[in-house]
Each structure stands twice: as C-alpha cells, then as structure tokens.
Amino acid sequence: PPSALEPFLLVAGAKVLKHGFSALKNAIAQGQYDFPQGVFFGGKAPSRSQVILTDHAREWVGKPERVLHIDFHTGLGPWASYALCADLPVDSARVAQLRSEFGYNNVQSYDPRGVLYEIKGGLGRFLESRFPETQYDCLLAEFGTYSPLKVLQAMRTENSAHLHAAHDQALNARAKARLVEVFCPQAEGWRSTALQRGLAVARQALRVLG
Q1: Cα–Cα distances in Å, from 161 out to 104, 147, 151?
Q2: pLDDT attached to residue 116
C-alpha cells in the first residue's frame, strides 16, 4: 500500500540525475508488456478501442484527401501550455507543413528534448496505415499540468492503492482525487486557459481544412 514515508520523489530524482529526464520519460511513458499490475501496461491482446477502430474507421471516415486528427491529452509539459505533437521525424515535410499551418513553436515532432516521448504502437501511425491513400495527420494536443514526477507519483500511488489497499476507502479516495487533479487541475485559470486553447486548436484545424 502507498505510504507517506515512501521516498519516491528522491529516488526518481536520483534516476533523472543519473540517466537524464528523457531516458526516464521514454522508459516509462512508452509503455510496457511485462508487468500486468504496473503502470502503462499495454495488454496481451488488441484493446477494445483498437478493435472498434479496425472494424469501423474506414466506414466512419470514408476516403478523404486529408484527415486532421486532434487527440487531446493532459499531464505533460509546463503548466497550462500546450504542444501539438506529431509522431514524425524532425525533418519531415509533413512537420514543416503542420508548422506552417499551426505555428512553428506549437508543433513538435519527436525530439528527446521536447514534450513528446518515444511511442510504441502509436494511434497516429496505426490510423495512417488504415488510410494509405489519405494524408492522415494525427496530432497529440498535450496540455501541461504539474511536473512530470508529480504526475507519475500520482499514477503510481493510485495504482498501488487500487491493487494493495482496496479495503481502505479513505486512502483510495485520496489517491484517486490526486490522480484526477494532476490530469485535470481544479484551478479555474488552468481550466479556462486549456479550454480556450483547445477550442482555438480545433478552429485552426477547421480553417486549415478550409
């Protein structure tokens, strides 16, 4: 069960100093397939959402010339900022096009120094493979909240409480409330900014598609 005395932040901080933040970010966030009870476990078979998309994506989307797919996320990056992340090489012509459409500083491709982490089995690449005749641009709109280590700590604590302290309702409630907070902060300023910027990204995508 999670304990207030557990030195998670100290141990994680030491790992960052030893290996670098990018290495820690990629090792954790890209997922794992070995420990079913661990965080970011990818499963042993295709997820239900992947099966649904495999069966219906062509039917829903049709045969367009281009798709702009905005996948909204929170929990990574500076407070209330956002980045549009594309799972593409830095020198890709599509990255250059997206930067011209959404703003150079708003679009990131995979760069160890940036927000995006190395992705295994990314949704964008999967959907792109379903539409070989379409320019399918999947952008991960990542809105920042708390520091990455605080977010990871909240995820780890909730996972630990769920697995090892199911009988302690108060502890579980605190752990789940903290998990919600790191991904959707109560602060009105954060919520207002994230909402306004999210709507702006959606409007920009509609303008790009014309």
Answers
A1: 42, 21, 15
A2: 65
pTM (predicted TM-score): 0.86
What pLDDT was estimated at residue 158?
Answer: 96
pLDDT digits (tens, 9 = 90+) for 41-56: 989 999 899 999 999 9
- Low-confidence stretches of the chain (pLDDT beneath 50): none
Phi, psi of 108 (to 5 degrees): -120, 135
